[in-house]
Design a protein that fits this description.
The protein is about 15% helix and about 45% strand. With about 170 residues, the chain is α+β, with helices and mostly antiparallel strands. Strand 4 and strand 5 (about 60-65) form a beta hairpin. One of its GO terms (cellular component) is cytosol.
Length: about 170
C-alpha cells in the first residue's frame, strides 16, 4: 500500500503562544484573527468583571475579555508588551488581553497531553491539554470552553450597545 508524504507526516497543529504572568499559554491558530497592540478600551455598563469593554478595531466593535480575570489569575501590571489577541468564537470576534504574544509554533499532536487529573481546578475546565516543547510546558486553551454561552451573549450585547451608542 502506498501513501503520500503528507499522510506519512505526523499530525501537527499550529498554535499561537502567549504569556500571562510567567506562564505560557496557547490557542489554535485557526481561531486567531489578529494580534494587536493594546487599543483604547471603552467600558460597558453592567458587563461582567472580566469583560473590560469594547474596542474599535478597524471599524468593527470588538468586546474585550481580560484573560487573567477570566482564568482567575492575579491581576498584572499594564505592560507595553500587552497585546490584544483577537479570536473568532463562532460568529463573535473577541479580543483577549494577554501579557505578551510570543510566536506561532508547529506542534505534533503527540506532544499534546491531557492535563493531569490531580491538577483539576475551575481553570482546568478551559484547558485542552499541556504541550511539551523543549524544556517548557505550554497550557493549550480550548476557546470553546473559555467563554460560556451567557458570556458570549453578554459580549454580543456589549458590542451592540457600543454600536448603537456610536450612531
Amino acid at each position: 500500500m502506498e501513501w503520500t508524504e503528507e499522510e506519512a507526516k505526523p499530525s501537527e497543529r499550529k498554535l499561537v503562544v502567549f504569556t500571562l504572568g510567567d506562564e505560557r499559554y496557547a490557542v489554535d491558530v485557526k481561531h486567531v484573527e489578529s494580534i494587536e497592540r493594546m487599543l483604547p478600551i471603552t467600558r460597558v455598563p453592567e458587563a461582567p468583571a472580566h469583560v473590560r469593554g469594547v474596542v474599535n478595531l478597524r471599524g468593527v466593535v470588538v468586546p474585550v475579555v481580560d484573560l487573567r480575570r477570566k482564568l482567575g489569575l492575579s491581576p498584572g501590571e499594564a505592560a507595553e508588551e500587552a497585546r490584544l489577541l483577537v479570536v473568532r468564537d463562532g460568529e463573535l470576534l473577541v479580543g483577549l488581553v494577554v501579557d505578551g504574544a510570543e510566536d506561532v509554533v508547529d506542534v505534533p499532536e503527540a506532544a499534546i497531553v491531557p492535563p493531569p487529573a490531580v491538577a483539576t481546578t475551575v481553570r482546568s475546565a478551559y484547558v485542552e491539554g499541556i504541550v511539551r516543547r523543549d524544556e517548557a510546558l505550554i497550557v493549550l486553551l480550548d476557546l470553546s470552553r473559555v467563554l460560556t454561552d451567557e458570556e458570549r451573549a453578554s459580549a454580543a450585547r456589549a458590542r451592540e450597545a457600543a454600536e448603537e451608542g456610536g450612531r
